[in-house]
Amino acid sequence: MTEHSLHRRRFLLGGAAAGAGVLLSACTSNEAPASDASANVANAGSDTKPGKPVNIGFSAPAADHGWMAAMTKNARAQAEKFSEVKLDATEGTNDVNQQISQVETLINAKVDVLVILPFDGKALTATGQQAMDAGIPVINLDRVFDTPLAYRTWIGGDNYRMGVNAGDYIAAQLKAKNVANPVIGEVAGIDSLPLTQERSKGFKDALARHGFAVGPRVSAQFTPESGEQQTSNLLQSAAKLDALWNHDDDQGVGVVAAIDNAGRKEFLMVGGAGSRNAMDLIKADSGPLKATVLYSPSMASTAISLARLLGQEKGVGDFAEHEIPAEITTYSAVVTKENVAQYLDVGFDS
């Protein structure tokens, strides 16, 4: 991804709200419990029925990168599924001041709910707080504001677990092949970003639990060009590799190109985010890419669904709670040849 698309990725909720507890009724005898309406799920089915009209304002950075373009595309597509939803989407921008101005316009227009994927979470915090103070619930998408007071609900991915799951998968594959003292490379994103640091820490921690360590490591810029250049450097410095983790499938286009150009075939590779082209390569099973760890833009679809429910003062169907959760962290599933078919629907174009 470009430097403009940062602070991102964390996920898997396939486009609909998911993940919370269910209220259970305890039973201390062998008899079937008596029917009790209070034991029922509070909002079962309430999110599927059309409700009152909801005007949702949407603001995101420029769609200058596969993952970011998919975020906006998914948000628009999800809004079209609901006859009572009107989506007011601003033109994507990587200019912080312009995004602030666009969101303020939506606030002044008195939209019912706001979905904001900020170019810079810190810079947009005051604007999110402004909307909340004006009585407009805010769904903060992916790049988190500095305070929870600036949003009603945050939804985004889990960068640390993304690294953990990549490390666990690689370790399992190497152990299955009885590889001792493996050389494990890493093509990270921009090192100055917290999201990159979290992914790398998760990867390092996971490998350490298996008795392994990260070997040669380079940092790219979330672009195919930087991915190719930095991977070429890594391959030149490492005569032998057993595995490689690339943080981002958009920059992974360049990573795969560098591997092909070098004629290297001795190692397995894991990607990150879940692009469609990465899934196609995994399905074909003809190269080093054997898996990718999801950070899916389908979270934008979920954000629109949640915004609709907030505007209609509903909870999430099948959740016991009457209210929508304050935070939802999506899960970074590992996509392999064995399960890729079930995740193709959330793959995005790199």
TrEMBL record:
Top-level division of the source organism's lineage: Bacteria
UniProt cross-references to SUPFAM superfamilies, sorted A to Z: Periplasmic binding protein-like I
Matching PROSITE patterns: TAT
InterPro entries: Peripla_BP_I, SBP_2_dom, TAT_signal
Domain Periplasmic binding protein per the UniProt entry, residue ranges: 56-309
GO molecular function list: carbohydrate binding
Pfam families from the UniProt entry: Peripla_BP_4
Location of the protein in the cell: Cell envelope
GO cellular component terms, A-Z: cell envelope
Keywords: Signal
UniProt xrefs under PANTHER family: D-ALLOSE-BINDING PERIPLASMIC PROTEIN-RELATED
Family recorded in the similarity comment: Belongs to the bacterial solute-binding protein 2 family.
Protein name: Ribose transport system substrate-binding protein
Taxonomic source organism: Amycolatopsis jiangsuensis
